[in-house]
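Running this now, will post back.
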Amino acid sequence: MCRLFALHAGRHDVEADFWLLEAPTSLAAQSEVNADGFGIAALSAEAALMLIRNPVQAAGDRIYHAVARHAEACQFLVHLRYADTGGVSLPNTHPFMQDGRVFAHNGVVGDLERLEQRLDKHLAMVSGETDSERVFALITLCIRQAGGDVRAGITAAVRELAAGYELYSINFVLGEVGHLWAFRYPEHNPLLVLEHAGGENRALIERDAHGTLSMQANPRGNDPMVVIASERMDADPDWQDVGVGELIHVGPELELDRQTLLTEPPRHPMVLSGRAEQSQAYERDD
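Update: finished.
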């Protein structure tokens, strides 16, 4: 399946090279399988936005390595693509940007013609072929209809999708200046959250190829942060599952709010086969 990663460090810019390049399960390592494109969105403490997308494998791309090694921001949002809906191309590469927000999605949603009819003139927000960008457009439309209330817009959109459209999953991360949102639904694809306290005395738990645990100086840096990812990226025991149907919000002070929006399964669950089934396959070691 595609991979999602998001980091929020509050009001201070930090580096993310550990997560993007050096972690035991870094984004670079994950891109060996999810090789159909990468995107990095970085929001700085000065509210500047950098968005880099390239429909190539991240691990082999010099731009990815340069950005991963040198970028500093208070928020990062990264996507690795395993193409299912839509070809391997720049317009189909996540993250997408609408109304100053960036969005990356892992999942499959059907009934796209009907979804396009629902978007009507707002379909102009969409430039590519993916179901993901159309899901983002629905969320953006619902936020607009809620007067800019992001929580209300996300809530309306995911409930509409769960009740009225064929879907397999709608895991996503969404970022805007100061705020990070993440949602998981239903249970098929995992999503995890880690609250990293920072501090010079916090060591990193590392596991080698033989399964031996060791402690080492913390390469994540001393800044507190919240990390959201599709899988555990190191052996830290504090990784927690995002619940099924749960929306997570991280604000500028790194306050973490968790709210369950959906408790019932999709009304029209999608059964995958072929390339789509392969794109959502996931092996997880607990």
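The helical segments are 17-22, 27-30, 62-70, 112-119, 131-145, 150-164, 274-279. More later if anyone needs it.
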